[in-house]
Amino acid sequence: MIRTTFLLALLMVATGPVRVVAAVEPPEPPVAEVNAGDVPEVEKELEAQSAEIDEVRLAEEKAVLVPLPHPEDGAAREAVRLGTESPLRQRIDGALSRDTAPMPEEDAGSIAMLPEIGHDLRRLQAEYDIPIDVNEAVVQYVRFFQTPGVRKHFVKWLGRLPRYQERYRAILREAGLPEDTIYLAMIESGFANLAYSRAKAAGPWQFIGSTGKRMGLQQDFWVDERRDPEKSARAATVYLKALYAEFGDWRLAWAGYNAGEGKIEKAKKKGQLDFWTMARGKILKRETKGYVPKLMAAAIISKHPEAFGFRKEEIEAERWTPYEKVTVPHAVDLEAVARAAEVSTHELHELNPELRRNCTPPRAYAVKLPVGSSVAFEKNWGEVGSSAELGFAHHTLVKGEGIATVAAAYGVSTVTVLQMNGLKAGKRVKPGTELVIPLGAQARRQGAVAAAEALASAAPKASQASKSRPAAAASGQATVLVRAGDSLWTISQRVGVKLQQLCDWNGIKNPSRHKLQIGQQLVIAPPQGRTAVRASAAG
């Protein structure tokens, strides 16, 4: 998994935060909300795929793999002093790596350590456009993948391989990378788009959030493009291409992808100039030492599955679904898109794994549909789309409020609020949590005002902030209702008072940090002779 960024200024495409306005478009949620769970259908598959890679990781940690010997540190130090151009240094480097570097087989008809192959090492290596070594470390991982607990997962990976093989190879080829780099995605995630690791890496190529964003993969409350198989593959090619340009060897590039280029540079400075020498040293972690031989082992088995006991009849080959895109101009429920396209929502989730909610984002968005479905979509969308647009309110929980109370106030079901925000039923939600509430067309016109009034009456003693809103209305004082896009300054201008005066009337100490809510009532004490102002909520 990627743990560091690399050549960011030159290679990464920065993506700024998406700013949206509440009631029709909510502001970008805070980090806690962005990292909230997905809708149940997606969450269930995410948990299954994540458990799969975690189980393989735990098995690898527990496996008794043959440890590589430690390097002769004194010889390595002497090699560094000689300089990179010294013939003597090259001889020392060769001697240090000889224990684990592959050597040609004396018997040209077989590979002693992998007799299942049935032909020699040179012929095996000719089958790949990436380096393939056969040594103790690689063979140990071949045997590891054959163990019962791991084998069942590798069978799944072999089944997913046909689905992505042609597309990934095309992307790698277009980027000028070896096509067999596809096996890196196999050992990272088993080609699972929704896989999420303990290090918070996601997607088939396992990007952590920060690196993914710098590589141009958008991540917010609505989408996580690390899970898009094609976009994440292209991002991975950029990173790998830069690593190879830096180190000049694919083994080191792969190791850098896992550990970060800083670790590789540090090992090189210690005189460890190739991966197998580094693997015998102390700088690389155990996970990285196993990363390269694991990739090679996966590649060897994948092109010779039956030789290693993976029978054709047990591999359920998946197929790539050709797609076409239609642009939805605003947020709509995926069920409406499916109905218009005459497909199932399951098919939409399969083709659009980056979508984290049961709706499209509140912006123009290109949705992938199975090829041929766009005709039905265009025919039906005029009727379906006219009533399918979603609006959203942005609500901050105060002490005493529960999800059921908020849902009832906005006229939506509790399940809808839980699903939209990735929350689980029965789990306590802390005050201060910001919720995105989906609203229908009628709710956008009336729901925000009604919700504010309902919540105010339902929890009059919830907090000092919540007490001030109903008190203002009950006392007969003039009030103004916060509308979509309002700020304290725009409200003060609209009602003709100074910003500080508006803040004083409402007990607001710091206007620059104060958060307004749609439908919130602010007290207005108009200047002498002016009529009281009461504004309605925007729809």
Question: How would you explain this protein's 3D organization?
Answer:
The structure is a single chain. With 539 residues, the chain is mainly alpha-helical. The chain folds into 3 domains: 307 residues, Lysozyme, CATH 1.10.530; 63 residues, no CATH class; 134 residues, no CATH class. The protein has 24 helices and 8 strands. The strands form 4 sheets. A two-stranded antiparallel ribbon has the order 1-2. Strands 3-4 form a two-stranded antiparallel ribbon. Strands 5-6 form a two-stranded antiparallel sheet. The radius of gyration is 29 Å and the shape is elongated. The two termini are 45 Å apart. The N terminus and C terminus are likely disordered.
In brief:
The protein has 24 helices and 8 strands. By secondary structure, it is mainly alpha-helical.
